[in-house]
Every structure is written in C-alpha cells, then in structure tokens.
Specification:
Blueprint lengths: L7 H13 L4 H11 L14 H26 L3 E12 H7 L5 E6 L6 E6 L1 H11 L15 H14 L1 H6 L9 E6 L13 E11 L2 E10 H4 L8 H7 L6 H12 L5 E4 L7 H5 L17 E5 L2 E11 L2 E9 L9
Antiparallel strand pairs: 1-5, 2-3, 2-4, 3-6, 5-6, 7-8, 8-9, 9-10
Pfam families: FliM, FliMN_C
Keywords: Bacterial flagellum, Cell membrane, Cell projection, Chemotaxis, Cilium, Flagellar rotation, Flagellum, Membrane
Membrane topology: Peripheral membrane protein
Length: 332
C-alpha cells in the first residue's frame, strides 16, 4: 500500500538519525515490527478471499459490457458503464452509503436463496426515465415516489436488464432473476442482519451528459452455496468441459445432415481477359485434361474422388472410380 512506502525525504531523515546516533538499528527494527500490527474490525469480517473477489470482478466486468449494450439500445443514447470497485462490507454500511431517496430494485435469484439489490443513483434513474418517455435525458430534482406509470416503465426496463446478469453468471450458476420490489427509500429495506457481510459492486455510469453510480449488493448468504465456483481452479475446469456421448450423437447427426457443394471438374485452363470478352457462341476453349482422363470430384474446394462421366436415365452423371487420399483434411 502507498502508506507503507517511504518518501525520499523520510529515507534521508532515517539515515541522518542513524549517522548522528539519534536512533539505533535495534530501535529502527523494533519500530518496523510495531508497524506490522494492524487494527482488525470484527464487525467487518472478510468472508471472501482475494481470489474470489477477483472472480466476482471479472463476472461483473462482463455484466457491465452487456449492460452498456442493452441500455444503449433501449435509451438510444450514449451509455458507458464500467466497474469501479468490488468491496465486502457490512449491510448496514451499504445502506448508510446510499442516498435517502434513490431507486432500489430487489431481485430474487432462484435457485439461490436471498435477494440481490440494484441501487441506481437518482441522477441516472431520472435520466433513463426522461429518455424512455421521449425527453432529451435531462436530470430532474424529483425526490418523491414514482407514479404508477413511471414505476411500470422503470420496472420493465430493469427486469429486462437483469437478463444480462443471467448471462454473466452462466459460468458459476444458472440463475433466474425475478424483480420482486422497487423501493425509493433504503431505510425500508430489512433484508438481512445489519452486520451481515455483503459484496458491493459499484459501476460508474455515463448516460449522455449525466453521470452517476449503479451499485449491486449481493449478501454472503446468496453466494455461499456457489463460493467454491468462484475459485480459479473451478474456472479452469469449466473451460475444459468434455463432450458427452449425447452431445457427440447430436453433433454427428447434424454433420450427416449438413449440405455441402460437390463439383465434377472436367478440366481447367487460363485465358486472358481480352479473350474472355470476345468469346462467342461456337468458340472452343482447350482444357488441360484429355477426354479419356477421369474427372476430379471436389467436395467444397478439396479434391476427394476420381470419376468417369456418363448418363443415368437420360441425365448426366458421374461414377466414382477412385478415392483420393492425403492432405490435412483426411483422417488417414
């Protein structure tokens, strides 16, 4: 941390104290040992490791990108959302940090137990509302409750926005976010114990010329069943999923039913653009293959067979007489 780094002037003062005898090496060592003692607040218990916090940060950075795309399309305005911080704090501290009048969405995330909060700064919330109702995205100083129409508009917006959280969380849990409540006063929220640890993900949000914060509060009780999924080892394992026999059967069935172009090539040649432009009916183009040579059958652009031309029920056809092997695309 920056507080543990000495400036050049402090280093010079220490060296000067040693050289003049004002401080001995033993005193300096004891002072350094004393600095290793840190105050620990038992009310602010750390329930998540640094590794798990980094995983949560990656997940919600992806969520921020998805939200940016979603809100840009819905609001038809410039939107930029980015993760500023991911902290674990007591629930009481989070409630005290949000404005007295704000916009808070309460979501259930089955099959996980408990609720997730999404708090939107009033500047951002009312800018969104103004844009959705055809305005220019102006910020209002409104602090009273939303009307029924405004509540319905905002509820629809944030219900659909949380579909992106389902996608962002797909690697650690399959959730189905459901909006259960929209509140404007955080003091009315009594979800969990005030001392319960929560993870707060803060997003810096810019909409047009308005900026503000969006905070997502996730209680520890919600994440507890999937805490092992937040480890780096789990992420590495999930990135190396083996294909099941059922998936192989489906893949084989789809490959067999795929349509690919097959061409019987009589021969080829090179001519100039000038000759091509002056080609007329009855002109003869000499190819590089003899008439009694077998034709090359190409699957896509890859030569696969040799065949001889003929007719089948008065229709032109070819009969495969040889299979071509070799090249990177063959199994043998």
């Amino acid at each position: 941390m920056a507080g543990d780094i000495l400036s050049q002037s402090e280093i010079d003062a220490l060296l000067s104290a040693l050289s003049t005898g004002e401080m001995t090496a033993d005193e300096m060592k004891s002072e350094q040992e004393a600095r290793k003692v840190r105050v620990y607040d038992f009310k602010r218990a750390l329930r998540f490791s640094k590794d798990q916090i980094r995983s949560l940060t990656r997940i919600h950075e992806n969520f921020a990108r998805l939200l940016t795309t979603f809100f840009s399309a819905q609001l038809r305005s410039y939107v930029q959302i980015s993760v500023v911080s991911v902290d674990q704090i007591p629930f009481e501290e989070f409630i005290r940090s949000v404005p007295h009048m704000t916009l808070i969405n309460v979501f259930e995330v089955p099959p996980l137990e408990g609720n997730i909060l999404m708090e939107i700064n009033p500047n951002i919330a009312y800018t969104m509302l103004d844009l959705l109702m055809g305005g220019r995205g102006e910020t209002h100083t409104k602090t009273d409750n939303l009307t029924e129409i405004e509540t319905k508009i905002m509820t629809n917006l944030f219900e659909r926005s949380f579909d992106n959280l389902r996608e962002a969380w797909a690697n650690i849990a399959d959730i189905d976010p459901i909006l259960t409540e929209l509140e404007v006063n955080p003091q009315f929220l009594q979800m969990i114990s005030p001392n319960e640890t929560v993870v707060v993900i803060s997003f810096n949000t810019i909409i047009g010329e308005t900026s503000g914060m969006i905070n997502i509060c996730i209680p520890h009780v919600v994440l507890e069943p999937i805490v092992p999924n937040l480890s780096v080892r789990y992420w590495m394992q999930t990135n190396k999923k083996e294909v099941s026999p059922e998936q192989l059967k489906v893949l084989e069935k789809r490959v067999k039913s795929a349509e690919i172009p097959i061409v019987a090539e009589i021969g080829s040649t090179d001519i100039s653009i000038e000759d091509l432009l002056y080609l007329q009916l009855g002109d003869v183009i000499q190819l590089n293959a003899k008439i009694d040579n077998p034709l090359t059958i190409k699957v896509g652009d890859i030569p696969k067979f040799k065949a001889q031309p003929g007719k089948l029920k008065n229709r032109m056809a070819v009969q495969v007489i040889e299979t071509l092997k070799g090249g990177e695309d063959d199994d043998e």
